[in-house]
Write a structure and sequence with these properties.
The radius of gyration is 24 Å and the shape is globular. With 546 residues, it is of the alpha/beta class. The strands form six sheets. Strands 1, 2, 3, 4, 5, 6, 17 and 18 form an eight-stranded mixed β-sheet that branches. The protein is built from 18 helices and 22 strands. The chain has three domains: 305 residues, FAD/NAD(P)-binding domain (3-Layer(bba) Sandwich); 113 residues, FAD/NAD(P)-binding domain, CATH 3.50.50.60; 61 residues, no CATH class.
Length: 546
């Protein structure tokens, strides 16, 4: 590859800089490392964990599994790798996915380029040299022209601050940092705080083995009954034979799945056929129930209300106690306007004598003491507290790094004032800084992630290659380009049901607790790709190339 202008610049540390530093060795980070090595670049990856996998390394809580169905949750860049894949379940569990990512890492000899057990704590851009200086928690410093953050959108755990929680004498653990040697739950008194996707998986899994289970629910969630059969050999063969077709269709679908048909508009389905239509989709047991019911389900209040009531009825059918069922049913938001989990026995868990629903809207938690959790009306003695309370989505892991762009500008402070990106991959004022799964891209929330990781990593790689070939020093979006993308994002996302729901993790909250930006881009993969491809084909008009 041609030597660029930046190669002749003096490194502030006095040694030859790396071409790129990649932060994170999860699903996107491994592919990003692979692609940059393919360009012949000198690349180094820093990973905080002691192994690869990202979210699949850290999230090893009971019941952890993906909700993207076979064969769509895997890499697409290698037909050989595709043919070697030997999936066991329609919805693989954590162990199977972590093993898969380790095999990928070894097959493409990526491990020797990764420094494990190391956190990046600071990254500073030097205007004079056009280089990033990256500092780790081991006080190592390296310089690089390009910095790519594959830190994951769901990594930085949110643990609510509850009075007295430090006094608890039992075991307290957040699901995202579950110990590798597991936690002994057999026969124990356990409280789970949180009933979204992760909490649902934990609750349904541990209910049969614990002594008593107290489910601390603030917001009830819709959930779809998962169908998770074992994968047969003929299905694996069909997967391998369909690679080209599935790859094309999935990469051009709205959310990263290739379904056989487009959903109809709500008004196109006669009244007397709507329930049968929904039942056929419900019986698929997948996220098709979220995005494949009616083409206008995110926009048409009548369609959303119909689907919501259908799902409420499915919950009522499965919970014996009508009073408990009603507490488990959302009534203040519509189906699909928050993250829709898949479940496998969650609602039936509440038919067990050892499972107790604690409605935090009726009796909020007041404090935690040495022996358990106090609410406004009761005290629950427990041995284990499991926090399934989610993440600082999209930016939490990025903000853990002190990132300084042009003129020493802090990215965190910049985002505190106004959270902005250009297609979720770059930020004005931060040259040669790239990121995946950041806000205002489908990957932030509404995409089968391997598909979006493919697209984002490929665009980042092509952009870095372009800068090299042009013998330029840096690239960043102009402020006008960023403004145009943010305007488009708001125009297509805010009017939807997701945009109208002010209380989901798809929307950031300010320091005062008020709703701020909707991080979920609801325009779909095809529109997003069209914009990104347009930047590339125009040779990055609207970007500052220096």
């Amino acid at each position: 590859m041609a030597q660029s202008q930046a190669d002749t610049q003096q490194d502030p540390l006095g040694s030859k800089p790396l071409d790129a530093v990649v932060v994170g060795a999860g699903l996107a980070g491994l592919y990003q490392l692979y692609r940059l090595l393919q360009l012949g670049l000198n690349v180094r990856t820093f990973e905080a964990a002691n192994g690869v996998g990202g979210v699949w390394f850290w999230n090893r809580y009971p019941g952890a599994r993906v909700d993207s169905h076979f064969p769509f949750y895997q890499y697409w860049f290698s037909k050989e790798l595709w043919d070697e894949s030997d999936w066991k379940e329609r919805f693989p569990g954590q162990v199977e996915i972590e093993d898969y990512l380790n095999r990928v890492c070894d097959k493409f000899e990526l491990r020797r380029h990764i420094t494990f057990g190391t956190k990046v704590t600071q990254a500073k851009f030097d205007d004079s040299s056009g280089l990033w200086t990256i500092t780790t928690d081991g006080n190592e410093q390296v310089t690089a022209r390009f910095l790519v953050l594959n830190t994951g959108g769901l990594f930085d755990a949110k643990i609510p601050k509850i009075s007295g929680q430090e006094r608890f004498s039992g075991v307290a653990v957040h699901t995202s940092h579950w110990p590798r040697d597991q936690v002994d739950l057999a026969g124990k008194r356990v409280a789970v705080i949180g009933t979204a996707a992760t909490g649902i998986q934990v609750i349904q899994t541990i209910a049969p083995i614990v002594g008593q289970l107290f489910v601390m629910q603030r917001t009830p969630n819709y959930a779809v009954a998962m169908k998770n059969p074992t994968i047969r050999q003929d299905q694996l063969l069909q997967m391998r034979q369909s690679y080209d077709d599935l790859r094309e269709r999935a990469h051009n679908s709205f959310g990263g799945f290739a379904y056989d048909e487009m959903p109809p508009l709500f008004d196109e389905v006669p009244d007397d056929r709507r329930e049968a239509h929904l039942r056929s989709i419900w019986d698929d047991g997948s996220l098709k129930m979220w995005g494949g019911t009616f083409a206008d389900s995110f926009f048409n209040p009548q369609a959303a209300a119909y689907v919501s009531e259908f799902v409420r009825d499915r919950i009522r059918e499965r919970v014996r106690d009508p009073a408990v069922a009603e507490k488990l049913i959302p009534t203040d938001y519509e189906f699909g306007s928050r993250r829709v989990p898949l479940e496998n026995g969650y609602f039936e868990a509440f038919n067990r004598n050892n499972v107790h629903l604690v409605d935090l809207r009726e009796e909020p938690i007041t404090e935690i003491d040495e022996t358990g959790i106090k609410t406004a009306t009761a005290h629950y003695e427990v041995d284990v507290i499991i926090y399934a309370t989610g993440f600082d989505a999209g930016i939490g892991a990025i903000n853990r790094i002190d990132i300084r762009g042009r003129n020493g500008q802090s990215l965190k402070q910049h985002w505190d004032r106004s959270l902005r990106t250009t297609v979720g991959m770059q930020v004005h004022g931060f040259p040669n800084l790239f990121m995946t799964m950041a806000p205002f891209a489908p990957a932030a929330a509404l995409c089968n992630y391997p598909i979006c990781a493919d697209q984002q990593v490929d665009w980042i790689t092509d952009t870095i290659s372009f800068v090299h070939q042009k013998q330029a020093r840096s690239i960043e979006p102009k402020v006008e380009t960023e403004n145009a993308w943010m305007t488009h994002h708001e125009e297509v996302s805010e009017p939807t049901l997701l945009g109208q729901n002010k209380h989901s993790w798809y929307r950031k909250l300010g320091a005062d607790g008020r709703p701020r930006e909707l991080i979920a881009y609801v325009g779909g993969i095809p529109t997003y790709k069209m914009v990104c491809d347009g930047y590339r084909s125009s040779q990055y008009q609207g970007f500052e190339i220096r």
